[in-house]
Amino acid sequence: MSSTTSATTTTTRRIIVLISGSGSNLQALIDALNTPALPDAQVILVLSNRKAAYGLQRAAQANIPTAYLALQPYLKNNPGKTREDYDAEVAKIVVKEKPDLVVLAGWMHIMSEKFLELVDGRKGLKGDDGVEVTHNIPVINLHPALPGAFDGAHAIERAYEAFQKGEIAHSGAMVHRVVKDVDKGEPVIVREVPIEKGEPIESFEERLHKVEHEIIVQAAAKVLEEVKPVQR
């Protein structure tokens, strides 16, 4: 016996945010909650894979529940378990909260299929009543580069270096849907960010982060409107 669910029955749209660091993009989401930019929305959980992530403090200051689960301690405490088992455990934490959207905001861990298949409904999870339930929850990720340009880590530094070599005229940032291949999912929001000749990387990075704070809110609002439109 199985059933399918994609949202709760309340009108408030439920968001889970996964972080690894300072949480400035999380803060942008928190600041936008229940404003015209992100109406009828609530961050119901912030999950970090780093215990010292400042984003956990941001969440606590906003009275948002937090959770912590890191890969290496998980493997140490569960002999025989793998990285994929860890991903499945993260998925179980997420699915249990019944979110309408999952946002990876500076989450520095590549998710495997074991995470994605539990979140997107290809595989179900048994509840306390023994009934297997599948969930279809969209997952989006913020990446500081344009589609196909600088996938993976250190995208800002690589783009800046490429500009200095004359290989590119500008860079940008995007929010995309998460798939197995790193930073290859369908873009939700894309924004170009110019690099000024002679400027230090810190100036470019600051401008790019401001854009990130805008598009992460825009993308969350766009995807939520697709899966759970605001009741007007």
UniProtKB/TrEMBL annotation:
Residues 14-121, 138-219 form the Formyl transferase N-terminal domain. It catalyses: N(1)-(5-phospho-beta-D-ribosyl)glycinamide + (6R)-10-formyltetrahydrofolate = N(2)-formyl-N(1)-(5-phospho-beta-D-ribosyl)glycinamide + (6S)-5,6,7,8-tetrahydrofolate + H(+). It comes from Candolleomyces aberdarensis. SUPFAM superfamilies: Formyltransferase. HAMAP family: PurN. The keyword ATP-binding does not apply. Its EC number is 2.1.2.2. GO terms for molecular function: phosphoribosylglycinamide formyltransferase activity. Pathway: Purine metabolism; IMP biosynthesis via de novo pathway; N(2)-formyl-N(1)-(5-phospho-D-ribosyl)glycinamide from N(1)-(5-phospho-D-ribosyl)glycinamide (10-formyl THF route): step 1/1. Belongs to the GART family. The keyword Protease does not apply. This is Phosphoribosylglycinamide formyltransferase. InterPro entries: Formyl_transf_N, Formyl_transf_N_sf, GART, GART_AS. It comes from the Eukaryota. One of its GO terms (biological process) is 'de novo' IMP biosynthetic process. Signal peptide: none annotated.
